[in-house]
Design goal:
This protein is mainly alpha-helical. The protein has two domains: 160 residues, Ferritin, core subunit, four-helix bundle (Ferritin, Up-down Bundle); 153 residues, no CATH class. It contains twelve helices and two strands. α2 packs antiparallel against α3. The longest helix has 33 residues. It is elongated, with a radius of gyration of 28 Å.
Length: 327
């Protein structure tokens, strides 16, 4: 990786001049401010408390950037060299905004703290490794500034996210997570697990051929997954219902549908019919109880009711498949 870094023209941090270190700090502060602003706009409609906190972080980063620019102006003049994170080998990186902002409010809050702590740690380590007194002082000042950022994060967190506001935002985030991922994924898992039982076990007991059974199960599972995925994505764009991205819901539903069917189709890759069937039946009941647990954990469905609906219903479908296959 080091060779690749040099091939791309990246320099080691210890080879930067004091002016370049200062320029790197300026560009890093600017980048972090823009990241906070992007996060704030992403969550403002649903999580106003967190958005206000992020606005405060962005404003603080801009203030520090102005102080760094003034320090550069006094020492080196008006022209600031273009030095960015990607130009320096081993410099700390930031996750892409589009990756973090789609992972939920709690992940964004965690990323804010991680960003400040990472910057602080880097400056502290860099200050310890340099031999130049002025550069050491500069890096020490930057580490102190980042320490102040960490404390500011805590202050803004308490100011804009008191317990009641955070609890409300967390509840909203949980509801969105359930609507976008859990609900369509659970529907897919139930459909894939239950609807494929009859054709798979009817084929198994009718043919006593494991490879044929696997082919039928694989085709039924993948076909059902594609069908459920497209149906979920096309049925609701999420704008009015608030269920979130149709693409995410489609993937959740389609993948879990296929998984539900493949769970008891894959054992038929085993050539021994009795062994494959025994494993497949055991996996069926594991799948059904997993569905019961998910309903209880995320959908607040009473355990006994979920067990009665899912396990009893799945057992009946399984029995129908066996009866048809042996008739």
């Amino acid at each position: 990786m080091a060779i690749l870094g040099f091939a791309q023209g990246r320099r080691r941090f210890r080879d930067l001049s004091e002016q370049e270190v200062l320029a790197l700090a300026i560009s890093s502060e600017e980048d972090d401010a823009r990241i906070y602003q992007s996060f704030a706009e992403r969550v403002r409609a649903d999580y106003p408390g967190t958005a206000e906190m992020l606005d405060g972080m962005a404003a603080e980063e801009n203030r520090h950037r102005q102080r760094l620019i003034e320090a550069h102006r006094q020492r080196f003049g008006e022209v600031i060299p273009l030095v960015r994170r990607e130009h320096v080998a081993g410099y700390y990186a930031r996750h892409p905004v589009w990756l973090i902002q789609n992972l939920g409010i709690e992940r964004i809050r965690t990323e804010v703290g991680d960003m400040e702590r990472t910057a602080r740690t880097f400056y502290q380590v860099a200050a310890q490794r340099t031999q130049d007194a002025q550069t050491r002082k500069l890096l020490g000042d930057l580490a102190a500034a980042e320490t102040g950022h960490v404390r500011l994060t805590e202050v803004l967190y308490e100011r804009h996210l008191p317990d009641d506001v955070r609890a409300e935002e967390d509840a909203q985030s949980h509801r969105q997570f359930v609507l976008t991922w859990i609900q369509p994924g659970l529907a897919g898992l139930m459909d894939g697990s239950v609807s494929t039982l009859a054709p798979i076990f009817a084929t198994a007991f009718a043919t006593q051929d494991t490879w044929t059974t696997f082919q039928v199960g694989f085709a039924a599972s993948v076909g059902a997954g594609i069908s459920m995925g497209f149906t979920e994505a096309a049925s609701d764009d999420g704008e009015v219902s608030g269920r979130g991205s149709p693409l995410k819901r489609g993937f959740a539903s389609g993948i879990m549908t296929a998984v539900g069917g493949l769970g008891h189709a894959l054992p038929y890759l085993i050539p021994q019919f009795d062994l494959a069937t025994g494993i497949a039946i055991a996996l069926v009941f594991l799948e059904l109880w997993a569905i019961v647990w998910i309903q209880k954990r995320y959908m607040d469905v009473p355990f006994l009711r979920a067990a009665l609906q899912v396990v009893l219903g799945g057992s009946l479908v399984l029995a129908v498949g066996v009866l048809i296959g042996t008739s």
